[in-house]
Amino acid sequence: MKTEPFVVNVGPQHPSTHGVFRLRVTLDGERIVDADMIVGYLHRSMEKLAESRTYTQNIPFTDRVDYLAAMANNLAYCLAVERLAGIEVPPRGQFLRVIMAELQRLANHAMAIGAFLNDCGAFYTPFQWMFRERERILDLFEMAGGARLTVNYMRIGGVSYDIPPEFVPTAQALLKDLPQRISEYETLLMENEILIVRTRNIGVLPADRAIASSVSGPVLRGSGVAWDIRKADPYCVYDQLDFDIPVGTRGDCYDRFLVRMEELRQSVHILEQALDMLPGGPASTPVPLALRPPPGEVYARIEAPKGELGFYVVSDGSPHPYRWHIRAPSFINLTPLKDMVVGLTIADAIITLGSIDITLGEVDR
Amino acid sequence: MSVALRGTELAEKIGPSFPSAVAEANEQWVTVAAEQLVAVATHLRDDPELDFRYLIGVCGVDLLDHFEVVYQLQSLSHNHIATLKTLALDHQEPQVPSLAPVWQGAQLQEREVYDLMGIRFEGHPDLRRIFLWDGFPGYPLRKDWLGMPGGRHAGLGKFPRED
Which of A130, A169, A254, B70 could form a disulfide with A114 if both were Cys (CB 3.0 to 4.6 A apart)? Predict the structure, then answer.
């Protein structure tokens, strides 16, 4: 009997693509033989727009790159400009940045785990639990900077506002609840047989291929490579804080899920220390309105929740960046996607995509 | 702490094997002639002393009369980073060899540079536009794209409260 390959479009309008992501898969029976990703539906030409705005005016753009981890994007960009212009951030500003970045990691991973479980078929219940914790973190952001999602909180030279006095007690109350909640999720999810059968040995990415294809963050660590910019190239005050890097062993979807679960715990641990160590003094250094960094170029990076987020900024001495490039982890983490999904069924490909944790704002920029 | 290898240091390491490859080396980066880029990149990846197995990022820069392609490299074992550059001298039809065969991680990023900057990567397995649609006029990240009236920073030249 004659058979023909069958082409299925997943997305761009599909709940499990986490945005406007389109995957064109070719099937032989039920198995995927080819996959082609089509992106760009959310392309907003940020790198071009940034060239005609000042360095400070570009901070709100970074919020909208990865809108689920706006604080991390703010931080990476401000670090790049500070390194270019030689600006020092006072200790309180450094700690506030770490606190915000780690809260953002908690919020992002809550979203990532919830959406991943949704893709696995655990419809909306885990998502709702995760949103319960995320909500309290967004409340903290609102308390500090006035916004919840696109926070625009950090500034070149520090942060926009110092935190109000009730911030630290509220954050500490949250941190007191979180370990128990995380344990609950672990008992409910990590040993759940359906979840394990559904995700073990699915979407396997061996360590050598992970390195060769430049993936970063939980995807790289899930493949067993203990690589975290916070340890390898510490920025802000991460070298004063104690935390571990969780790694997977097999590089499958389950390992990536486990890495994110453990990173929740580690972030709580970092936050507890950072809140205790939070020094007094000013939260930021004043910088000129139209900052003119000396001509030169810089690449600054951080460990964003999704992986290595870097900004490559070229200055020509004018108040506008000459070139403004984002090394977007969501985008680059999609490099091995085709190899990971070939041979799987569509349902497994959806899980694999969910385990990479992409934000389309960051993929398309 | 990641150590940034100086460009001059890297040039000394490339020098013996590829005497004519290094076009320029300074504190921050090393510029390699496009003809020898693939050979040099393979050497950087495979030499155990350098061990740049991880390509952080690829970025194109329009320098008005030519283009520059910037590669950020990382060694996970030695924890050092380096910046490698190459030049595409023809501003109309810029072309450099693709490093996707050396680092798979360059695949999507080179497509991005091609899409937005218009630099062709020779030897790339699948060089297509990625964000913009086929038939999009020009390459938006080039400085002369659409020739914005009033220059590149139209309307933004003055800052009333600058002083």
Answer: A130
